[in-house]
Amino acid sequence: MGRTPKPLKILVHPALAAWPEWEALRAQGHPVTVLVGPQGPQDGNEGPLDGYDVIFGPTCWRMEPGLRGYLDTAIQNVRRGKYPTAKKVAS
Question: What's the whole-model pTM score?
C-alpha cells in the first residue's frame, strides 16, 4: 500500500508496541506514537490523550461527543469482554 493523503494520529499502549502492524501504518504515513509513562505523550497545553484520532490499548475505549449514542454499546462490549457469559451445556 502507498502513503495515505489523510493520515491519522495514532496512540498505542506499550503492551501492544511490538505489533508489526504499527510499522505498516507508519509506512502509509500515519504518525504512530507509543504511550510512555503514566502521563503519556504531551504536546503543549493539551491533555496527555488529546489530539489523537485513534487510541489502541488492551482495554481502551475512546469516546467523544459525536459518539455519545454508542456509549451503551461500548459499555455492553466491555462487560462482555470482562464478564463473558457461561455457555449452557445441552442435556
Answer: 0.66
